[in-house]
Amino acid sequence: MLDPRCPTRQLLDRIGTKWTSMAVKVLAEEAPGELRFAELRRRIPGVSQKMLSVALQSLVRDGLVARRVEPTVPPAAHYRLTELGLSLERPLSALRVWAETHMPEIDRSNQLADESPPS
Q: With helix as H, strand as E and coil as C, how does the chain read?
């Protein structure tokens, strides 16, 4: 994993942002259907238009998300997970379960570290 060519490291570099993993989760909930950009943004509290756009562009480039544009004025972009993207949801879901289970422990550890005098 220390080697920059390590597949795990490369994948985490691509999907490791909170907005990217949240976009995958929301699209997985809609699968096999698709969502418009505005609906995706509405379902991901706190994400800016720019950050969601960057996350989706990266997911499309990596083949995890498909983008379809309706030739309307203004154009309407629709997004859906590809088969490859759907296969990523299970490991991300396991990570979410782990985080929900263990974040209280991590928070307690951080609190204790913050309260302890520096060594």
A: CCCCCCHHHHHHHHHCCHHHHHHHHHHHHHCCCCEEHHHHHHHCCCCCHHHHHHHHHHHHHCCCEEEEEECCCCCEEEEEECHHHHHHHHHHHHHHHHHHHHHHHHHHHHHHHHHCCCC
What is the spatial distance between Cα 24 and Cα 65, in angstroms, rounded to a whole number?
8
pLDDT of residue 49: 95
Residue 1 pLDDT exceeds 70 = no
Q: And the tokens for 112? A: 């204790």
Q: How many Å is the Cα radius of gyration of the chain?
A: 17
User: Structure pTM?
Assistant: 0.84
CA distance 104 to 98: 11
Domains in the chain: ranges and CATH: 7-115 (1.10.10.10)
Query: Can you tell me the distance from the alpha carbon of 45 to that of 25, in angstroms, rounded to the nearest whole number?
Result: 13
pLDDT tens string 20-39: 999 999 999 999 999 999 99
